[in-house]
Write a structure and sequence with these properties.
Among the domains are: about 1-130, Nuclear Transport Factor 2, Chain: A; about 300-580, 3-Layer(aba) Sandwich (Beta-lactamase), CATH 3.40.710. A hairpin with a 5-residue loop joins strand 10 and strand 11. The relative contact order is 0.09. About 35% of the residues lie in helices and about 30% in strands. By secondary structure, it is of the alpha+beta class. Helix 15 (about 415-420) packs across helix 17 (about 460-465).
Length: about 600
C-alpha cells in the first residue's frame, strides 16, 4: 500500500490529480487507447473515445490506407488543466518492405462523470489529418536505369509489353472455351506459329487463374485490342528492358538483358498523403524519394559495333563473324555477325573452327620462346615436306626455298611451321596458346564464350599439323582476337569483358608471353600486311595481322586476325575459301570507323 501511495503522489505532481481504481488519470486512459490502436484492436480503441463510431472507422482506415504491418505508440509528456489534458505521443509505423514512418502527435482527453476519456479527433492519429480525411501510402517507382554503350549512348531502356492471358473459367462462363481459343489463335497466330488452340484449351483449363499466352508491344496490342475482345482473354502491363535500336547487337543485348535486368530497378520511394472524401490527395505528410540505380555500362562501342556490323553485312552468301576487343583493357568493343551466321547461333564467340594459318602467330611465338628460330633465322619453305608418314604441302605447293622466318610467316609457308612444330615438345603449342588467351575458359557476364582448344600433341604428325592450324586445333573468332590482342598488349592476354563492373572468371593454365618474344613477333605480323598475304589492307594504318585458310572436307574457311593500335580483331568467313575474303571484310570495317579510331 505504501508503494501505491507513492506512485499516486508522483502522478499528482505531474498531472495535478490522482483518481482511484475506476478513475486512474488521463495517462492511463491515453495508454489504453494507444495500446488498443497499436494492437489494431480498433473497436476497443474507439470505445476509449467520446465518439466510438467515428473513431472506429478512422482508426481502421489508417491501418488499411498505410498497409501497415505494426505500430508502436508511446505516451510522452502529460499536461492537465482542470478537466482537460493533453498527452504527447510518439507514433512509429512499420510500413511494407521495412519502411518506417515516425512522427509526434497529441491526444486530448476530458474528464467526465465516467472518468477520463479521449476526445476524438482525426488529429489523434496525425496532427495533419483533417476531419473526414484518411491516410494513404503511395509507392513511388524508381525510374529504371538504362544500359549504355561505351561511347555514351543508351542502347537499352525501360519499356512496356502487354501480356495476353486466357482464363478458361471466365470463357466458359461467357460462352465456349473452344470458340474463344480458336478466335485467340486466329488473332495471335501470325505472331507465334507455335500457338495451338488445343494446347491452350487443355492447359488453361487445368490452370487456376489466367493462363499466359504471349507478350506484345504496346503498339501491336493497341492494333489488336478490338480483335482481342474475346471471352476469357485478358491482359496486363509488364515492364521490360527494351533495345532502342533493334539493329544494334540484338543477339548480345538479349543475353545482357538476362544478366542486368534485376540491377536496374533502384530503390522505390514512398509517400504518405491525406486523401479527401472525393479521393483527391490533400497534403503530403511524408516523402521518401526513390533512389534510381546507376546506369549499366557495356564495353561495346557504338562506333566499332556499327562499323563491324556494316562490314559483315556485305553479303549473306557466307556466314561472316567478327570480334573486336580493346587489348589494353579486354573490353569487347564489337561482336558482329551477318544473318547467315545468326542462323547458326553465336559463332563469333562460341563457334569453333580450325584457325588455319592464323595459328602461326602461336607457333612462331613458341619457336621464338624456345630459341628454335627468330625472324631473321633462315628456315626451309619447300612446296611440300614429309613429316613421318604425312606429306604436308603449301597452298598450291608454292616454294620459297630457304628464307628468313619472317618471310615464311608473311607468305604463310605451311611447311616451315609444320617442321618447327615437329621440333617442339608435346605441350609447347598448348602452353604458348594459353599464354595468348587461346584454350582458356572465360565466364563472361552477359556473353556465352568459348575461346578454343589446343590439345597436347604427343604424336609427331598431330603436332606438325597443329603447327599450321589444321590438325585438332580449334578456335573461335573471340579466341583469335585474344591471340592478336596479346601481341598488342605486350604479351599479357586480355581478359574479355562485356558488362562493366562484372568481372570475368578465367579458368585454365595461364602465363605471360615474354616481351622479347612479342618484340620479334610484331614485325613478322606487320610484314604480312606490307609484303605478304594481306597487302590488300595495306594503307589502313599500321595494321599487324595474320591471314589463314583452314581446309576441311569440301572447302576452306577464310580468316584474318590482328590489331591496329588499341583494336584487336578476328574475322571469319565460313567456307570463305581465299583469306582475302576475310581481309576484305576487315578492310571495310576500318573504312567504316571514324578516322584514326583506336590508334594510340
Amino acid at each position: 500500500m505504501a508503494f501505491g501511495a507513492a506512485v499516486c503522489v508522483l502522478l499528482a505532481v505531474v498531472l495535478t490529480g490522482c483518481a482511484g481504481d475506476e478513475d486512474d488519470g488521463p495517462r492511463r486512459a491515453a495508454e489504453r487507447f494507444l495500446a488498443a490502436f497499436a494492437a489494431r484492436d480498433v473497436v476497443t480503441a474507439a470505445a476509449a473515445t467520446d465518439n466510438a463510431d467515428a473513431a472506429e472507422g478512422a482508426l481502421d482506415a489508417a491501418w488499411t490506407g498505410l498497409a501497415a504491418t505494426s505500430l508502436r505508440a508511446e505516451a510522452g509528456k502529460a499536461s492537465v488543466s482542470g478537466d482537460t489534458a493533453e498527452i504527447t505521443v510518439d507514433y512509429r509505423w512499420r510500413l511494407p518492405r521495412d519502411r518506417e514512418w515516425a512522427y509526434p502527435a497529441t491526444v486530448r482527453l476530458s474528464h467526465t462523470d465516467a472518468g477520463w476519456t479521449v476526445r476524438w479527433s482525426s488529429t489523434d492519429i496525425h496532427p495533419g489529418l483533417g476531419a473526414d480525411q484518411r491516410l494513404s501510402l503511395r509507392v513511388l517507382q524508381s525510374p529504371r536505369a538504362t544500359v549504355n554503350e561505351a561511347d555514351g549512348s543508351e542502347v537499352m531502356v525501360d519499356g512496356t509489353l502487354i501480356g495476353v492471358t486466357f482464363d478458361a473459367k471466365e470463357a466458359a462462363r461467357q460462352g465456349s472455351v473452344a470458340d474463344s481459343v480458336t478466335q485467340l489463335v486466329d488473332v495471335l497466330g501470325p505472331f507465334d506459329r507455335s500457338l495451338s488452340a488445343q494446347q491452350i484449351a487443355e492447359e488453361s483449363t487445368a490452370t487456376t487463374g489466367p493462363y499466359p499466352i504471349m507478350r506484345l508491344t504496346e503498339d501491336t496490342f493497341n492494333r489488336l485490342r478490338d480483335r482481342l475482345a474475346i471471352p476469357g482473354v485478358g491482359h496486363n502491363e509488364q515492364r521490360i528492358l527494351t533495345a532502342k535500336d533493334k539493329n544494334f547487337a540484338p543477339a548480345l543485348l538479349s543475353q545482357v538483358r538476362k544478366v542486368v535486368e534485376s540491377d536496374l530497378d533502384g530503390q522505390t520511394g514512398w509517400r504518405v498523403v491525406t486523401v479527401n472524401p472525393n479521393g483527391l490527395d490533400a497534403d503530403v505528410l511524408a516523402d521518401q524519394a526513390p533512389q534510381p540505380a546507376p546506369a549499366v555500362g557495356l564495353s561495346l562501342s557504338r562506333s566499332v559495333q556499327t562499323a563491324a556490323q556494316r562490314a559483315v553485312n556485305a553479303t549473306d552468301r557466307f556466314q561472316i563473324a567478327m570480334v573486336v576487343i580493346q587489348p589494353s583493357t579486354g573490353r569487347i568493343l564489337a561482336v558482329a555477325q551477318n544473318r547467315a551466321a545468326d542462323r547458326q547461333g553465336p559463332i563469333a564467340t562460341t563457334g569453333l573452327y580450325p584457325p588455319g594459318s592464323t595459328f602461326k602467330m602461336v607457333t612462331a611465338a613458341a619457336a621464338i620462346s624456345r630459341n628454335l628460330a627468330h625472324p631473321d633465322t633462315y628456315v626451309p619453305c619447300p612446296g611440300e615436306i614429309q613429316i613421318g608418314p604425312r606429306l604436308i604441302p603449301n597452298y598450291d605447293r608454292f616454294s620459297l626455298g630457304t628464307v628468313p622466318m619472317q618471310r615464311a610467316f608473311a607468305q604463310s609457308c605451311n611447311t616451315t611451321f609444320a617442321k618447327l612444330a615437329s621440333e617442339m615438345g608435346p605441350s609447347d603449342l598448348a602452353h604458348t596458346a594459353a599464354a595468348m588467351g587461346l584454350g582458356r575458359q572465360y565466364t563472361i557476364a552477359g556473353l556465352d564464350a568459348v575461346s578454343g582448344s589446343v590439345p597436347i600433341a604427343n604424336e609427331l604428325v598431330a603436332r606438325s599439323e597443329d603447327g599450321f592450324g589444321q590438325g585438332k586445333v580449334l578456335a573461335s573468332p573471340l579466341g583469335m582476337a585474344l591471340v592478336a590482342g596479346t601481341v598488342a598488349n605486350n604479351g599479357k592476354a586480355p581478359v574479355p569483358q562485356l558488362i562493366l563492373g562484372k568481372q570475368t572468371r578465367v579458368d585454365g593454365p595461364g602465363a605471360v608471353l615474354d616481351r622479347g618474344v612479342v618484340a620479334q613477333l610484331r614485325p613478322m605480323m606487320r610484314a604480312v600486311v606490307t609484303e605478304g598475304t594481306a597487302t590488300t589492307i595495306n594503307g589502313q594504318g599500321p595494321i599487324f595481322g595474320k591471314t589463314g585458310e583452314a581446309e576441311f572436307a569440301g572447302g576452306s574457311h577464310a580468316w584474318f586476325a590482328g590489331y591496329r593500335g588499341d583494336l584487336a580483331f578476328a574475322t571469319l568467313v565460313v567456307r570463305g575459301a581465299d583469306s582475302n575474303n576475310a581481309v576484305a571484310v576487315t578492310r571495310d570495317f576500318f573504312n567504316f570507323l571514324p578516322a584514326g579510331y583506336g590508334l594510340r
